[in-house]
Amino acid sequence: MTSEHNGDGPSSDPRAARTAGRTGVFVADTAAERDDAFEVRRSVFVDEQGVDAGLEYDEHDEPGADATHFVAYVDGSPIGAARLRSANGAEPSSGSDDGSAGKVERVAVAADSRGDGWGHRVMEAIETRAREEGFDRLTLHAQTHVRGFYDHLGYEARGEEFEEAGIPHIAMDKQFEGSA
């Protein structure tokens, strides 16, 4: 992952100049990159799924919050987003308090980019960063209609289905290999 900017070529749109030709998943290190991630999240969760905007954006999105944001681009256009933070304060991801759990949140891929492998790329970037930060497992709340996606990535469901933002979810966990 990288957060370098590609400023090749002139453009009347500063965002287009900043992201021109950029393709991949990046840690959103700048306010502009975070805005790009928020744009994708707003499109998927608020506009498409009808989640209240007041629920979608929370304290973990504020500048200086202890969370790592990710943004995916195709040819400079933001098409994916996610967030990783410590699961401390969230329910334990497994029956054990040993080790360190990360919480994956707000995973979104724009409708016209689904089915192209971007969800896998975003999750791969999150898992790489989580290992770098010393997490030994990840936990997330998957919308039930995408549970199979997370099953395929090695996440295991726990507990019963529950509702979050008016959408059915299931808690899922993944223990990294070599962690106990």
The CATH topology of the domain at 14-135 is given as: Aminopeptidase
**Fraction of helical residues:** 25-40%
Order of helices and strands: HEHHEEEHEHEE
Mean pLDDT: 86
The residue ranges in which pLDDT falls below 50 over 5 or more consecutive positions are 1-13, 90-98
End-to-end CA span: 27 Å
**Shape, principal axes of CA atoms:** globular
CATH C-level class of the domain at 14-135:
Alpha Beta
Biggest sheet, spatial arrangement of strands:
1-2-3-4-5-7-6
Give a short summary of the structure.
The protein is an alpha+beta fold and about 180 residues long.
Q: Which features characterize this protein?
A:
180 residues, alpha+beta, seven-stranded mixed beta sheet, 7 strands, globular, disordered N terminus
